[in-house]
């Protein structure tokens, strides 16, 4: 009996040993298989920090002419990915004053300086909010054993905000040159040593005024797809019909909106891009110019995410910058409404840098910003080509506010980019305006526009049957009022205000 028990135990031990060995072999095989598929090694790191779809600065490699071993594409891509990862985790660490991820991208020697900086900033209630916008890389040396690389990153474009106790104390945009040594450790290229060789602060470029504008226009959405122009309901026939109405009414310009998330964020949707081009094609057929408003329904101005926004803007701008129908770029619709929730300094910094990005891709077509009121319209006035503002306040005060604005902006044309009044008067707003009130409003508005020689774009061509809750919320008195701003009612009939759609 004792002998039998020993045999059973021995058999169990042998079987268990075989199972353990099999699992180990299977795990190792799976790991090699995973790596051989070209999988992203950063997904295997034990860190909360990930670069994927968060950090996409523009990278330009100089032609390879390095000393040492000849570089292949696989190693070059690995070096680039890990080098950019190192930049990203450093930026996250300096902003949060936490050390997560540092050890995965820096050697023991290099991380000492980073840790000292983080400790110093923590003790002084300081944090640095930064990103790099462009890298110009040159491979100086690649060792024969493939374990060491030296790169020079010339004229890196960096943006930094320094906060002390949550107060912004320094904001700078600069170019810097770094030389870095990278070591291959555990399958990862880690930074061993970095030297900053020089840096140059960048001053904002002021843009001269333009005098070729002649905008008599309207903000446009199709009646059946308000705030959802590019999608399943996109129709060439609808655009042709509507653009003919607009042109026949004596207008020459439309303003349309590109929504950031709807267009795919950094990875722009090709189908929607094609629809955008088609819209401009049809506008050209009707002799209409188009102002394209970027970043609609966008509200994340975080510096660490700027590079994603930049890739989005570059794709959109590159795709239509040479189109004959394009008149101008509007960087963002009513960004000042985000001042309170996102921080005024953050929003303005984002706008300032986005102007530079758009202008770097398209140096021909003018740029503006669609401010929600006259008060904010002077912000970045020297960087835009013309100043745009919206006005939904008391019409009696428009003339004086325009006069004040002209005193502050002496050399730029002013565009009243949105204005209008709802003709809704019903259960949810019994003392609202009638269609006749709306007509009288536009009659008076056009008199003020003519008196002050303003460019103008009214809101909007159609009354809408449905308004997305994202636009004005769920409150019925707001949604119903928003439905009745058009010159044409929901049944396709021209309202009395149509007579004053232009002056």
Fold topology:
Layout (H helix, E strand, L loop, with lengths): L1 H35 L21 E4 L5 E2 L4 H24 L5 H4 L2 H16 L2 E17 L5 E17 L2 E19 L2 E14 L14 E4 L16 H13 L4 E7 L10 H16 L3 E8 L9 H15 L5 E8 L5 H4 L1 H18 L5 E5 L15 E5 L6 H11 L5 E6 L15 H17 L3 E4 L10 H4 L3 H7 L21
Parallel strand pairs: 1-3, 2-3, 7-8, 7-14, 8-9, 9-10, 10-11, 11-12, 12-13, 13-14
Antiparallel strand pairs: 3-4, 4-5, 5-6
Helix pairs in contact: 5-6, 7-9
Structure, explained:
- The chain has 503 residues and is an alpha/beta fold.
- The protein contains 13 helices and 14 strands.
- The N and C termini lie far apart (110 Å).
Task: Name the features.
single chain, elongated, 503 residues, 37% helix, 6-stranded mixed sheet, 8-stranded parallel β-barrel, alpha/beta
């Amino acid at each position: 009996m004792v002998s039998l028990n020993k045999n059973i135990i021995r058999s169990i031990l042998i079987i268990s040993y075989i199972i353990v060995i099999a699992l180990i072999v299977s795990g190792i095989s799976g790991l090699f298989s995973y790596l051989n598929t070209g999988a992203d090694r950063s997904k295997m790191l034990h860190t909360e920090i990930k670069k994927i779809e968060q950090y996409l600065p523009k990278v330009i490699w100089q032609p390879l002419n390095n000393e040492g071993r000849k570089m292949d594409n696989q190693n070059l891509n690995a070096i680039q990915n890990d080098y950019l990862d190192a930049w990203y985790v450093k930026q996250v660490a300096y902003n949060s004053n936490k050390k997560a991820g540092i050890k995965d991208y820096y050697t023991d020697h290099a991380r000492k300086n980073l840790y000292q900086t983080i400790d110093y900033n923590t003790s002084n209630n300081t944090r640095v909010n930064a990103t790099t916008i462009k890298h110009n890389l040159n491979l100086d040396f690649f060792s024969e054993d493939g374990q060491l690389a030296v790169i020079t990153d010339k004229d890196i474009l960096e943006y930094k905000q320094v906060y002390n106790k949550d107060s912004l104390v320094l904001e700078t945009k600069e170019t810097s040159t770094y030389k870095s040594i990278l070591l291959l450790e555990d399958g990862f290229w880690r930074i061993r040593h970095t030297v900053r060789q020089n840096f140059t602060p960048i001053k904002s470029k002021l843009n001269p005024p333009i005098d070729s504008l002649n905008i008599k226009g309207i903000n446009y959405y199709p009646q059946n797809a308000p705030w959802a122009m590019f999608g399943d309901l996109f129709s060439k026939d609808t655009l042709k019909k509507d653009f003919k109405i607009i042109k026949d009414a004596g207008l020459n310009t439309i303003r349309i909106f590109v929504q950031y998330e709807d267009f795919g964020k950094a990875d722009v949707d090709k189908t929607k891009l094609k629809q955008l081009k088609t819209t401009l094609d049809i506008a050209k057929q009707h002799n209409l110019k188009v102002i394209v408003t970027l970043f609609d329904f966008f509200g994340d101005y975080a510096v660490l995410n700027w590079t994603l926004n930049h890739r989005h803007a570059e794709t959109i701008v590159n795709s239509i910058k040479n189109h004959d129908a394009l008149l101008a770029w509007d960087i963002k619709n009513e960004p000042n409404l985000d001042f309170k929730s996102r921080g005024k300094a953050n929003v303005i910094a984002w706008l300032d840098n986005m102007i530079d990005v758009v202008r770097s891709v398209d140096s021909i077509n003018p740029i503006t910003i669609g401010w929600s009121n006259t008060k904010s319209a002077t912000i970045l006035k020297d960087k835009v080509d013309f100043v745009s503002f919206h006005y939904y306040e008391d019409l009696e005060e428009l003339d004086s506010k325009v006069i004040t604005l002209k005193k502050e902006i002496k050399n730029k044309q002013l565009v009243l980019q949105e204005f209008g009044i709802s003709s809704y008067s019903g259960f949810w707003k019994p003392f609202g305006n009638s269609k006749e009130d709306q007509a009288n409003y536009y009659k008076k508005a056009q008199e003020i526009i003519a008196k002050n020689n303003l460019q103008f774009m009214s809101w909007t061509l159609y009354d809408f049957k449905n308004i997305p809750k994202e636009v004005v919320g769920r409150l019925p008195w707001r949604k119903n009022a928003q439905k009745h701003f058009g010159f044409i009612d929901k049944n396709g009939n021209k309202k009395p205000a149509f007579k004053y759609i232009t002056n």
